[in-house]
Amino acid sequence: MIKKILLVSVVFAATLAFSQSYAPPAGQTGTTAIHKDSSVFVAWATGIVVERGYVDAGDTTVMYDNTNRASFGVPENALNMAEGTSGNVVSLGDGGKATLTFDQAIINGSGADFAIFENGLSDTFLELAFVEVSSDGNHFVRFPAHSETQTTTQIDGFGNVDCRYINNLAGKYKAAFGTPFDLSDLPIDPLLNLQNITHVRIIDVVGSIDPLVGSKDSQGNMINDLYPTPFHSGGFDLDAVGVINQQVLSVDKMELTARIYPNPTKQLLNVELNEVSEVRIFDLTGKLWIEEIGVLKVMLDMSSLNGGFYLVKVESDNQILVRKVLVEK
Known about the structure:
Layout: H1 2-17, E1 34-35, E2 43-44, E3 47-51, E4 90-91, E5 97-106, E6 114-118, E7 129-134, E8 140-142, E9 146-147, E10 166-167, E11 177-181, E12 197-204, E13 237-243, E14 258-261, E15 268-283, E16 288-301, E17 308-316, E18 319-327
Antiparallel strand pairs: 1-11, 2-13, 3-5, 4-13, 5-12, 6-11, 6-13, 7-8, 7-12, 9-10, 14-15, 15-16, 15-17, 17-18
């Protein structure tokens, strides 16, 4: 009887470990896939910089067409509206990345805010990528990706990936269907303005289950996808990035300014603004220490804080300013 209970427990635990937690393929009930022709898209990426990855991260001596880097397609293939075809893309290679920009910033609105298109040939022939965003092109924050795909057997370069096991990874859906991303899923970061996302970065997942080569999700799991793909078209094949929620700029909008002094400070910090704003003090780990809502001029008592650098974040009407201040003890 004890053996039977243990066996049932093991089977149940295995079922939980590989449960299908996430949305199904395009066309099925509950899918989050968005077709490229959907009216939800209001704009598309207009600028791109690509850094190609290897054709095989596990053996960087492997060559294809006289190079050990992916070489299929040109970066401009990923600009403007998604094509939804296998050929008009740019291949990133193992660990390669593409950073895209937009005529107007993406904002955190209702539901998904943008979607990324890959050229997967079917619902299961999927190549995955991490997604990061930035408000300044320097500081990027990654979406918390999760993979429940088994990691005992390597999925080969022509294998199958079940999209129901993956979340917040680009490439979840086949060609012509975008994988949506909601900025609300991001961790809080004082250097990221969710109402002013100017850059989207896509980083190919190296799908090897070898911990010395492969990529891990936000929970430390190896991400098992098609590997190796030692061709000029290896890695994530980027088709497009479509914008759903976009910043609307007013021609007479007043630019937010702030006077913050003294810096360094030992006790009191003055913050003087040109419009009513929210003022928050974070340490460099992102922990919130002080918060003032709806102020134009405020004197902050910093005496309870330990000595060191802090970030003053001022936010108003979709605008944000971040300044570093030093508290001396």
